Amino acid sequence: MAVSPTDPAVYCRAVTKSYVSGPTKVMALQGVDLEVRLGELLMLVGPSGCGKTTLISVVAGILDHDEGECLVFQEDLRAMGRNSKTLFRGQNVGFVFQAFNLLPTLTALENVSIPLLLLGLKKTEALSQAREMLERVGLADRLQSLPAQLSGGQAQRVAIARALVHRPRLIVCDEPTSALDAGTGQKVLEVFRGTALAEDRALIIVTHDNRIFNFADRIARMEDGRIVAVESQVAH
User: Fold this and answer.
1) Is-above-0.90 flag for pTM?
2) Strand duo 202-206 + 170-174: pairing
3) Residues of the domain holding 98
């Protein structure tokens, strides 16, 4: 669906999500209201267990919420069939998992090329674009390395490159700088701002890393499954 510049990239109203743990029902999201604007880098912060990862998993279509409304580029992913949802995510969403989720038998270059191959690009073109993205995150010398041969920080940058390579309109990141030193974290955030953010794109970053807060346009604070405050940052 076409999205006008005034439409939010992400629109959540009264979103709930629960899990069953034995005899107990745990409410991970308790009526979340949130909008993420086009051209915006929004950081989602709050204590561990407050629902941040659950929320971005709902936004990215990895989890279905229980109640409320969650639209991504005016589309309701929960209402989509499995194949339609997979296609929509492949075309529109890049996700950086905290656990990286790299395929252990593929090189860094091959891992990053996967989203492009799934979209139907020829292998030579997919590998070329993957190489360019890995160079942008400072891994030109590790193209042929397997995940087991990479440090935690290097593996994290491969995961970031994979999320960005197909130029998705929405990028969702779970602690993308947690394994990076301060200097590398700053460089990665510069790549995010330069590559991911444009008038028709948006970026959500879950983070505890206050060293990168200055890259945010707004910071949304979560507690106990709710957004309790949204703060605007100074102009970049």
Assistant:
1) no
2) parallel
3) 10-20+28-232
